[in-house]
Specification:
This protein has about 150 residues and is mostly beta strands. The chain has one domain: Nucleic acid-binding proteins (OB fold (Dihydrolipoamide Acetyltransferase, E2P), Beta Barrel), CATH 2.40.50.140. It is about 10% helix and about 45% strand. It has a five-stranded mixed β-barrel with strand order 1-3-4-6-5. The longest helix has 7 residues. It is globular and about 55 Å long.
Length: about 150
């Protein structure tokens, strides 16, 4: 039987992304993302429920953020694709902790108020795809047809 572990989120960054560099040159990016659901309760009053997601990325996406080729900051609205991973670890007080993370495959800013050097890079870089260059459209003067005699 086939299975699928796919997550798509749209939300706001809760902090600036943090990048950790390891001795072998590998980079790891972590950041939190808030998604908020609005709904009406039984009494007709609007309610909000916010979920916080731990995002983790390795490789090209983390490298791009580290080298400031992508400038994501707290509050930016983001589109994120990835997969869920749950794990546990033992902290310094010898307490077993459980954590659920989103391993990010693709990440793109939806905040239109800030400039990016290459908006396509945000979406495609981690997926190992090269950003698509948009063909330059050139204006051509229409050719006039000869008038019938």
């Amino acid at each position: 039987m086939a299975s699928l572990n796919k997550v798509i989120l749209i939300g706001n960054l809760g902090k600036d992304p943090e990048v950790i560099s390891f001795d072998n040159g590998t980079k790891k990016m972590t950041v939190s993302l808030a998604t908020t659901e609005r709904y009406r309760d039984r009494d007709g009053n609007w309610q909000e429920q916010t979920e916080w997601h731990n995002l983790v990325s390795w490789g090209t996406l983390a490298q791009d953020i580290f080298e400031k080729r992508r400038n994501y900051v707290k509050g930016d609205q983001m589109y994120v694709e990835g997969r869920i991973r749950s794990r546990q670890y033992v902290d310094n007080q010898n307490v077993t902790r459980h954590i659920t993370e989103i391993i990010v495959d693709k990440m793109m800013s939806l905040s239109g108020n800030r400039q990016q050097q290459n908006p396509n890079a945000s979406y495609n870089a981690y997926a190992g795809q090269q950003p698509q260059q948009q063909p330059q459209q050139q204006y051509q003067q229409p050719v006039e047809a000869p008038m019938p005699a």
